[in-house]
From TrEMBL:
This is AMIN-like domain-containing protein. Residues 1-19 form the signal peptide. The keyword Signal applies. It comes from Georgenia soli. Residues 33-57 have a biased composition (Low complexity). It comes from the Bacteria. InterPro entries: AMIN-like. Keywords: Signal. Residues 102-226 form the AMIN-like domain. Residues 22-105 are annotated as: Disordered. PROSITE patterns: PROKAR_LIPOPROTEIN.
Protein backbone atom coordinates (compact mmCIF):
# COMPACT_ATOMS: atom_id res chain seq x y z
CA UNK A 1 0.00 0.00 0.00
CA UNK A 2 2.77 2.42 0.82
CA UNK A 3 4.42 1.78 -2.59
CA UNK A 4 1.15 2.32 -4.40
CA UNK A 5 0.50 5.58 -2.55
CA UNK A 6 3.96 6.84 -3.41
CA UNK A 7 3.42 6.18 -7.14
CA UNK A 8 0.06 7.98 -7.12
CA UNK A 9 1.57 10.96 -5.29
CA UNK A 10 4.41 11.23 -7.77
CA UNK A 11 2.00 11.14 -10.71
CA UNK A 12 -0.17 13.87 -9.17
CA UNK A 13 2.82 16.12 -8.56
CA UNK A 14 3.95 15.68 -12.21
CA UNK A 15 0.52 16.59 -13.54
CA UNK A 16 0.38 19.70 -11.36
CA UNK A 17 3.77 20.91 -12.59
CA UNK A 18 2.72 20.35 -16.22
CA UNK A 19 -0.49 22.37 -15.72
CA UNK A 20 1.47 25.22 -14.13
CA UNK A 21 3.86 25.41 -17.08
CA UNK A 22 0.97 25.62 -19.59
CA UNK A 23 -0.99 28.34 -17.78
CA UNK A 24 1.61 30.57 -16.19
CA UNK A 25 2.74 32.91 -19.07
CA UNK A 26 -0.37 33.19 -21.26
CA UNK A 27 -0.32 32.23 -24.92
CA UNK A 28 3.00 31.59 -26.56
CA UNK A 29 3.97 34.10 -29.32
CA UNK A 30 3.48 32.97 -32.89
CA UNK A 31 6.67 31.85 -34.59
CA UNK A 32 8.50 34.47 -36.61
CA UNK A 33 8.18 34.01 -40.36
CA UNK A 34 11.31 33.16 -42.29
CA UNK A 35 13.18 36.29 -43.29
CA UNK A 36 12.51 38.34 -40.16
CA UNK A 37 9.61 40.50 -38.91
CA UNK A 38 7.24 42.22 -41.35
CA UNK A 39 6.09 45.82 -40.79
CA UNK A 40 2.49 46.81 -41.21
CA UNK A 41 1.42 48.62 -44.44
CA UNK A 42 1.26 51.95 -42.55
CA UNK A 43 4.89 51.56 -41.48
CA UNK A 44 6.28 50.65 -44.92
CA UNK A 45 8.04 53.42 -46.88
CA UNK A 46 9.26 53.45 -50.48
CA UNK A 47 12.03 55.76 -51.64
CA UNK A 48 10.89 57.83 -54.67
CA UNK A 49 12.59 57.05 -57.97
CA UNK A 50 15.06 59.71 -59.10
CA UNK A 51 13.67 62.18 -61.60
CA UNK A 52 15.22 62.07 -65.08
CA UNK A 53 17.69 64.85 -65.75
CA UNK A 54 16.98 66.98 -68.81
CA UNK A 55 19.94 67.56 -71.07
CA UNK A 56 20.43 70.27 -73.64
CA UNK A 57 22.80 69.92 -76.58
CA UNK A 58 23.07 73.40 -77.96
CA UNK A 59 26.08 74.66 -79.87
CA UNK A 60 27.85 77.93 -79.23
CA UNK A 61 25.64 79.62 -81.80
CA UNK A 62 22.35 78.41 -80.36
CA UNK A 63 20.08 80.37 -78.03
CA UNK A 64 16.50 80.34 -76.83
CA UNK A 65 14.10 80.26 -79.76
CA UNK A 66 16.86 79.97 -82.36
CA UNK A 67 17.39 77.09 -84.73
CA UNK A 68 20.06 74.76 -83.34
CA UNK A 69 23.25 74.51 -85.38
CA UNK A 70 23.13 71.15 -87.22
CA UNK A 71 25.96 68.71 -86.67
CA UNK A 72 26.67 68.51 -90.40
CA UNK A 73 27.16 72.24 -90.84
CA UNK A 74 30.23 71.59 -93.01
CA UNK A 75 28.56 68.81 -95.02
CA UNK A 76 29.51 68.40 -98.63
CA UNK A 77 26.87 68.12 -101.39
CA UNK A 78 25.88 64.59 -102.38
CA UNK A 79 24.80 65.49 -105.92
CA UNK A 80 28.22 66.58 -107.20
CA UNK A 81 27.44 70.31 -107.12
CA UNK A 82 30.45 72.34 -108.19
CA UNK A 83 31.39 76.01 -107.98
CA UNK A 84 30.39 78.28 -110.86
CA UNK A 85 29.27 81.84 -111.53
CA UNK A 86 26.53 80.56 -113.86
CA UNK A 87 22.89 80.18 -112.71
CA UNK A 88 22.20 76.96 -110.82
CA UNK A 89 18.97 75.19 -109.88
CA UNK A 90 17.78 71.82 -108.62
CA UNK A 91 16.87 69.16 -111.23
CA UNK A 92 13.13 69.52 -110.62
CA UNK A 93 12.99 73.32 -110.83
CA UNK A 94 10.54 75.06 -110.66
CA UNK A 95 8.42 72.35 -109.07
CA UNK A 96 7.31 72.64 -105.46
CA UNK A 97 9.40 70.92 -102.83
CA UNK A 98 6.89 70.47 -100.00
CA UNK A 99 5.09 72.34 -97.22
CA UNK A 100 7.92 74.26 -95.60
CA UNK A 101 8.18 77.32 -93.39
CA UNK A 102 11.40 79.39 -93.72
CA UNK A 103 12.54 80.03 -90.14
CA UNK A 104 16.14 81.20 -90.11
CA UNK A 105 19.29 82.33 -91.88
CA UNK A 106 22.86 81.68 -90.71
CA UNK A 107 26.23 82.63 -92.13
CA UNK A 108 29.48 80.80 -91.44
CA UNK A 109 33.09 81.15 -92.54
CA UNK A 110 35.04 78.00 -93.42
CA UNK A 111 38.36 77.24 -95.03
CA UNK A 112 38.00 78.02 -98.73
CA UNK A 113 34.38 79.16 -98.66
CA UNK A 114 31.70 81.09 -96.81
CA UNK A 115 28.36 79.43 -96.23
CA UNK A 116 24.79 80.72 -96.01
CA UNK A 117 22.24 78.29 -94.55
CA UNK A 118 18.52 78.84 -94.97
CA UNK A 119 16.56 76.87 -92.35
CA UNK A 120 13.09 75.40 -92.86
CA UNK A 121 10.48 73.63 -90.75
CA UNK A 122 7.96 71.16 -92.11
CA UNK A 123 7.84 68.34 -94.61
CA UNK A 124 9.68 67.98 -97.88
CA UNK A 125 12.80 69.49 -99.42
CA UNK A 126 12.85 72.97 -100.94
CA UNK A 127 13.28 73.44 -104.65
CA UNK A 128 15.79 76.19 -105.47
CA UNK A 129 17.45 78.46 -108.01
CA UNK A 130 20.49 80.67 -107.34
CA UNK A 131 21.93 83.21 -109.78
CA UNK A 132 23.69 86.56 -110.01
CA UNK A 133 21.36 89.47 -110.77
CA UNK A 134 22.02 93.07 -111.72
CA UNK A 135 19.50 94.39 -109.19
CA UNK A 136 17.73 93.02 -106.13
CA UNK A 137 14.09 93.31 -107.22
CA UNK A 138 11.41 92.19 -104.75
CA UNK A 139 8.93 89.73 -106.21
CA UNK A 140 5.32 90.88 -106.21
CA UNK A 141 6.12 94.55 -105.52
CA UNK A 142 8.81 95.17 -108.09
CA UNK A 143 10.76 97.39 -105.68
CA UNK A 144 14.54 97.60 -105.99
CA UNK A 145 16.17 96.69 -102.66
CA UNK A 146 19.48 98.06 -101.47
CA UNK A 147 21.71 95.09 -100.54
CA UNK A 148 25.24 95.50 -99.20
CA UNK A 149 28.19 94.58 -101.44
CA UNK A 150 29.02 95.13 -105.11
CA UNK A 151 27.47 91.91 -106.45
CA UNK A 152 24.17 90.19 -105.64
CA UNK A 153 23.13 86.54 -105.63
CA UNK A 154 19.40 85.93 -105.80
CA UNK A 155 18.17 82.81 -103.97
CA UNK A 156 14.68 81.46 -104.67
CA UNK A 157 13.30 78.53 -102.64
CA UNK A 158 10.07 76.83 -103.67
CA UNK A 159 7.66 74.60 -101.79
CA UNK A 160 7.13 77.06 -98.94
CA UNK A 161 3.86 78.03 -97.28
CA UNK A 162 2.50 81.08 -95.54
CA UNK A 163 2.64 81.14 -91.72
CA UNK A 164 -0.45 80.24 -89.74
CA UNK A 165 -1.21 82.45 -86.74
CA UNK A 166 0.86 84.99 -84.85
CA UNK A 167 3.26 82.41 -83.43
CA UNK A 168 4.38 81.13 -86.81
CA UNK A 169 4.41 84.62 -88.28
CA UNK A 170 6.90 85.66 -85.61
CA UNK A 171 9.24 82.81 -86.55
CA UNK A 172 9.39 83.41 -90.30
CA UNK A 173 12.78 84.50 -91.61
CA UNK A 174 12.57 87.99 -93.09
CA UNK A 175 14.66 91.14 -93.25
CA UNK A 176 18.41 91.73 -93.10
CA UNK A 177 20.83 89.27 -91.50
CA UNK A 178 24.31 90.09 -90.25
CA UNK A 179 27.43 88.31 -91.44
CA UNK A 180 29.82 88.45 -88.49
CA UNK A 181 32.97 86.49 -89.24
CA UNK A 182 32.50 86.59 -93.02
CA UNK A 183 34.72 88.69 -95.29
CA UNK A 184 33.25 88.11 -98.74
CA UNK A 185 29.56 88.12 -97.78
CA UNK A 186 28.36 91.58 -96.73
CA UNK A 187 24.65 90.99 -96.15
CA UNK A 188 21.83 88.49 -96.51
CA UNK A 189 18.41 89.99 -97.16
CA UNK A 190 15.16 87.96 -97.14
CA UNK A 191 12.17 89.67 -98.74
CA UNK A 192 9.63 87.00 -97.75
CA UNK A 193 7.11 84.59 -99.24
CA UNK A 194 5.27 85.21 -102.49
CA UNK A 195 3.13 82.63 -104.33
CA UNK A 196 4.85 79.61 -102.78
CA UNK A 197 8.37 80.98 -103.16
CA UNK A 198 10.79 82.44 -100.64
CA UNK A 199 13.13 85.11 -102.04
CA UNK A 200 16.48 86.17 -100.59
CA UNK A 201 19.58 88.06 -101.72
CA UNK A 202 23.23 87.58 -100.78
CA UNK A 203 25.38 90.69 -101.13
CA UNK A 204 29.05 90.04 -102.01
CA UNK A 205 32.21 92.10 -102.39
CA UNK A 206 33.15 90.24 -105.59
CA UNK A 207 31.56 87.97 -108.16
CA UNK A 208 32.83 84.71 -106.72
CA UNK A 209 31.94 81.18 -107.82
CA UNK A 210 29.20 79.53 -105.77
CA UNK A 211 27.45 76.20 -105.34
CA UNK A 212 24.01 75.34 -103.91
CA UNK A 213 22.47 72.18 -102.52
CA UNK A 214 20.00 70.95 -99.89
CA UNK A 215 20.36 69.06 -96.62
CA UNK A 216 17.68 67.15 -94.71
CA UNK A 217 16.65 66.46 -91.11
CA UNK A 218 15.94 69.34 -90.81
CA UNK A 219 15.44 70.78 -94.29
CA UNK A 220 18.06 73.35 -95.26
CA UNK A 221 19.16 75.14 -98.42
CA UNK A 222 22.90 75.78 -98.50
CA UNK A 223 24.75 78.34 -100.64
CA UNK A 224 28.54 78.21 -100.51
CA UNK A 225 30.58 81.08 -101.97
CA UNK A 226 34.21 80.28 -102.73
CA UNK A 227 36.75 82.65 -101.20
CA UNK A 228 39.98 83.79 -102.87
CA UNK A 229 42.05 81.57 -100.56
CA UNK A 230 40.10 78.45 -101.61
Amino acid sequence: MRRTARVVTTALVGMALLAACNSGGGESPAPEPAGGPTSSPAEQTTAPAPSPTATTDGGDDSDDGATAVPADETAEPTDGADYSTEPQNDPGWPSSGGELLPTGVRVGSHEGYERVVFDFEGTGTPGWRVEYVDEAVEEGRGDVIDVGGDFTLQVIATGVRYPEGEDENGRVAQGSYGTDGADLIEEVRVTGIFEGQNQAFIGLDEKAPFRAFTLTDPARLVVDVRTTDG
